[in-house]
Amino acid sequence: MLGRARTPFRLRTPLGVPLRQIYRPISINRVLLQEQKKQENVNATDGVETPKRKPLSRIPIGAIPEANSQKIGSSGNVEFSTWKAVVLFALVGTAVTFFFKREKKRLELQKEADQNRGIGKPLVGGPFDLIDTNGEQFTQEKLKDKFSLIYFGFTHCPDICPDELDKLGLMLDELKSKYNIQIQPIFITCDPARDTPAVIEEYLKDFHPDIIGLTGTYDKIKECCKNFRVYFSTPRDVKAGQDYLVDHSIFFYLMDKEGEFIDVLGRQYDASGAVEKIKGHIDAYVPRDQRNKQKNSWYGFLFK
């Protein structure tokens, strides 16, 4: 069955709407397009470029949006703040590490000094009553309010005592020049029969001028050596001109400001090593009353 051929396009007219009202917008648009083309042709012939239309966006082409610029600025601030925070953290970390290392060393030296004074061990040091090179009395009371370094020897010692007294002089000078620390150096003879105040005064002229020389009777020297745990072998009854040997311990005894023993420095230390040891003990020194408070406090376990 053959049907009618359908047209490719057929405008359907709405019911009740005149045909001329439908075609009017189309004809107007065509007229506007034609006028626009004529104007473009006229501008082209006159050499005038047609101005480009501005984009619908209010932001010019190629410009950075304000929001993005704020983000960039804030990102820069964040990066700068982060850099400052890293530097500050590094500085604080270094300071804290240095503080804890120093405190750890101080506590270790304080514990060492307390152990040297500790219960159950023979006490080093004690009362003594001697005389200096001026013939004046010198007792343990003169050890207070200053750090002291005591050495036991005798003026007829051939080599060890001179070497140790030379080292003592170097220690005193280095403590003064390097750390501005002054301690009281004391030389106590183990040979009271031959080492009179005048002999000791003449002997010490070859060494540091600050060294204080002490002597006394045989019994008082023996008692002093016993209190400091110094080996003493000097014979009691010695005749004038008699030659004899004197054995003694070769140590420096470091005493605190209360006249109490801190540590002993043997020949294993050279002058500089002894200076650093003394400096550490002086920095770590805590008076007896404060030490007792520390041990009885809640953090007393740190000092045990």
TrEMBL record:
<feature type="binding site">
    <location>
        <position position="157"/>
    </location>
    <ligand>
        <name>Cu cation</name>
    </ligand>
</feature>
<dbReference type="Pfam" id="PF02630">
    <property type="entry name" value="SCO1-SenC"/>
</dbReference>
<dbReference type="InterPro" id="IPR003782">
    <property type="entry name" value="SCO1/SenC"/>
</dbReference>
<dbReference type="InterPro" id="IPR017276">
    <property type="entry name" value="Synth_of_cyt-c-oxidase_Sco1/2"/>
</dbReference>
<keyword id="KW-0472">Membrane</keyword>
<comment type="similarity">
    <text>Belongs to the SCO1/2 family.</text>
</comment>
<dbReference type="GO" id="GO:0005507">
    <property type="term" value="F:copper ion binding"/>
</dbReference>
<keyword id="KW-0999">Mitochondrion inner membrane</keyword>
<protein>
    <submittedName>
        <fullName>BA75_03080T0</fullName>
    </submittedName>
</protein>
<feature type="disulfide bond" description="Redox-active">
    <location>
        <begin position="157"/>
        <end position="161"/>
    </location>
</feature>
<feature type="domain" description="Thioredoxin">
    <location>
        <begin position="119"/>
        <end position="287"/>
    </location>
</feature>
<keyword id="KW-1015">Disulfide bond</keyword>
<dbReference type="GO" id="GO:0016531">
    <property type="term" value="F:copper chaperone activity"/>
</dbReference>
<keyword id="KW-0479">Metal-binding</keyword>
<dbReference type="GO" id="GO:0045454">
    <property type="term" value="P:cell redox homeostasis"/>
</dbReference>
<feature type="binding site">
    <location>
        <position position="248"/>
    </location>
    <ligand>
        <name>Cu cation</name>
    </ligand>
</feature>
<dbReference type="GO" id="GO:0033617">
    <property type="term" value="P:mitochondrial respiratory chain complex IV assembly"/>
</dbReference>
<keyword id="KW-0186">Copper</keyword>
<dbReference type="InterPro" id="IPR013766">
    <property type="entry name" value="Thioredoxin_domain"/>
</dbReference>
<dbReference type="GO" id="GO:0005743">
    <property type="term" value="C:mitochondrial inner membrane"/>
</dbReference>
<feature type="binding site">
    <location>
        <position position="161"/>
    </location>
    <ligand>
        <name>Cu cation</name>
    </ligand>
</feature>
<dbReference type="InterPro" id="IPR036249">
    <property type="entry name" value="Thioredoxin-like_sf"/>
</dbReference>
<dbReference type="GO" id="GO:0006878">
    <property type="term" value="P:intracellular copper ion homeostasis"/>
</dbReference>
<keyword id="KW-0496">Mitochondrion</keyword>
